[in-house]
Design goal:
single chain; alpha+beta; NADH Oxidase; four-stranded antiparallel beta sheet; 8 helices; 6 strands; binds 3-iodo-tyrosine
């Protein structure tokens, strides 16, 4: 057991404590804003500003992660051919999922949403953000983007939790910026690493079509559980 690794330098934390009325107003405004987010399945084809997406990816990448490994890559896909390839591969998997992999209970749960194997939004959305989880790293710290040196594997920690949190930040940031998203999980997702040429240690985690809702876009009339059903005080 080696303990030769030096500690980080610890710096004073510049934390601003806010007056309670301000906290309350900010907490409410944030919850009210997030409550307006909806999953969108019909997009306009208008392009989205790449620098806005970059800021949103920066927000996502500020998420906490196990041992600060930051075990994620966000691939921003705007290329028409790549989007077409992703749609083709996703629909192939989804066709099989709807026909063979999902059981009756699952299909029944989805019936009210009216989803099916067809995924036109993978081409019409101007951008797809594909989030990859680094199951392990090829370098000891978060910084090297790694040569394809798969001789040595360095462990990452709590990667599902870390990348899940980063995705939450990303979806919130995109919504805050004025963009609509869909949380899409074609299954299995192995094709995304192949189409996008990601290294072996990166596993596709989530596919987010991003853009503006189509003019005739509709969303299902669903409600969030009231706080009394989701918060327990002890
Ligand atoms: N991944 C499939 C099926 C699907 C599953 C769930 I759970 C949803 O909430 C929505 C869809 C699809 O994208 O159609």
């Amino acid at each position: 057991m080696s303990h030769e690794v030096p500690r980080y330098r610890f710096l004073p934390f510049a934390f601003e404590r806010r007056p309670e009325p301000e906290m309350r107003a900010r907490a409410k405004a944030f919850a009210d804003e997030l409550a307006l987010r909806r999953s969108v399945r019909a997009f306009r084809s208008d392009p989205v500003p790449e620098d806005v997406l970059d800021h949103c990816v920066r927000a996502a990448s500020s998420a906490p992660s196990g041992a600060n490994r930051q075990p994620w890559t966000f691939v921003v896909v705007t290329d028409v051919e790549k989007k077409r390839a992703i749609r083709r591969a996703a629909e192939e998997e989804e066709r099989r999922s709807y026909a063979e992999r999902m059981n009756d209970e699952w299909l029944t749960a989805l019936e009210p949403l009216g989803t099916n194997w067809e995924k036109p939004f993978l081409e019409t959305a101007p951008a797809l953000i594909v989030v990859f989880r680094h199951a392990y790293s090829c370098a000891p710290g978060p910084w090297s983007t790694s040569s394809a040196d798969h001789e040595r594997r360095f462990q990452n920690y709590y990667t599902q939790e870390s990348v899940g949190i980063a995705c939450g930040f990303l979806i919130a940031a995109l919504h805050h910026a004025g963009l609509a998203t869909l949380t899409h999980t074609p299954s299995p997702m192995g094709f995304l690493g192949r189409v996008l040429g990601r290294p072996e240690n990166e596993k596709a985690f989530l596919l987010l079509p991003v853009g503006y809702p189509a003019e005739d876009c509709t969303v299902p009339d669903i409600a969030r559980k009231p706080i009394e059903l989701v918060r327990v005080r002890v």
